[in-house]
Amino acid sequence: MSFRPIVLGALYPGIDRGLKADLLATQALSGSALPICTSHVVAGNGVVTDVLNVPSDTVSAQLEHVFKTQSPTSAKISIIGASSTADRVFEHLEQFGGPIVYDLTISGPSGEDVLGQRGLESVTDKLSLADLVTIRLNDASLVAGMEIPSLDDAQVAAQRIAQQGAKRVLIRCGKLPTHFYDQETSPPDYALDLFYDGEDFALFEAPYLSGLDDHHGASSGLLLPLLKSLEAREEFEPSLQKAKARVSEALREAQDNPDQHSYTFYHALEKEPTVSEVQ
Predict the structure, then answer these.
(1) CATH of residue 264
(2) Number of H helices, E strands in the chain
(3) pTM of the predicted model as reported, rounded to 2 decimal places
(4) Is 81:36 a contact under the CB 8 Å cutoff?
(5) Which of 1, 2, 22 shows the shortest CA–CA distance to 10?
(6) CB contact set of 86 (below 8 Å; sequence gap of 6+)
(7) Which of helix, strand or coil describes residue 39?
(8) Are 244 and 269 in contact (CB under 8 A)?
(9) Eight-class DSSP state of 14
(10) 249-261 per-position pLDDT tens digit
(11) pLDDT band at 71 (very low <50, low <70, confident <90, very high)
(12) β-pairing, 5-11 with 74-77?
C-alpha cells in the first residue's frame, strides 16, 4: 500500500514550514500527502504579521472530503487552529484505523500564538486518540505546567503529559543539560529527543547542527518517516531511532550546502539511513 498520510496543519506562505514542509517530506518518502488546512499564518524570521484560522466547518468539510474520496493510511496533526476545531478534527479521526501522530503545537517558532488557552484545554482532552504525542520543549512546559531546565525535568514533564491521556510522548528537547545543577556549564553539543511510552524512557541523541536557523522542515522530516515506519507495523523505538538518523543526516547535508539548504534537505531525506547511522 502506498504512503498516503493526512497532514493537518497551517499554511505558511513562502516558507517551507507547516503543510508545505509536510508535503515535501512525504514526497521525498515516495508518498502522496492529503493536506487539511486549519490556519493561514503569515510569520517568519521572528516576525508575526497575521494568523487567520480556517472556520471549523471548513476544516470538517475537508476531512469529510478526504475520507469520502481518498484512502488515507495515517495522519499527522499539528496546528489545529480555532479551539472549536479540535472537537471536529478528533471526531473525524476517532474511527480511523491508521497510526496517528499529534505534533502538539501551541506557539510557532516566530512567536505566533496558534492555539491559546481555550484551545489547549480542548486538545488535552483528546490526547489519547493519538498513538504518539510529540511536542517542542517550550510547549511541553506549558502543557505540563512546569519549567524544564534539564533532562531530569523533561522526564517529569513527559509523565505529566502522559497523565493527561497521551499514550506515548516524545519531547524534542534540543540542547538541554542533564541535571538542574548542570545549567551553569555549557549544554551538551547534541540534540536530544526524549521518548516515554508510559512505563520506560528512551533517549535519542544526534549531533547539534548550527547555522540552520532558517530551516523549517526538521519536524516534518522526523515525523513523516516515523509515520511510514508505523504504517509498516514497526516498533516505536526502532522507528524513532531510524527517523532520527534519517532527519539528522538530511540536516547535516543541508548544513554543508547553505545556499540550497532546503532543496538539499528534502533530497537527502529520500535516502534510507545506513545501519551505522541508526545505531
Answers:
(1) 3.40.1190.20
(2) 10, 9
(3) 0.90
(4) no
(5) 22
(6) 80, 119, 122, 123, 126
(7) strand
(8) no
(9) T
(10) 898 888 888 777 7
(11) very high
(12) parallel
| Cα 271 from Cα 268, distance rounded (Å) | 6
Model confidence pLDDT, tens digit, residues 13-45: 878 889 999 999 999 999 999 999 999 988 877
Q: 534519517: which residue's cell?
A: 246
Residue 112: pLDDT above 90? no
Identity of the residue numbered 142 = L
The Cα 248–Cα 81 span in angstroms is 29
Structural domains counted in the chain: 1
pLDDT over threshold 50, residue 139: yes
**Residue 49: enclosing H or E segment and its boundaries?**
strand 47-53
Residue-number span of the structural domain to which 100 is assigned: 5-278
Q: Which cell numbers in the block locate residue 19?
A: 503543510
Taking Cα atoms as reference points, which of 193, 211, 209 lies closest to residue 201? 193
* pLDDT (0 to 100) of residue 276: 47
Provide CB contacts within 8 A for 248, sequence distance 6+. 191, 206, 207, 209, 277
The secondary structure of residue 259, as a DSSP letter, is G
Give me the pLDDT at residue 274, please. 64
* Positive/negative CA dihedral, 129, 133, 139, 142: positive
Instruction: Provide the grid cell at 171.
Output: 519531547
Quick one: DSSP state of residue 72? -
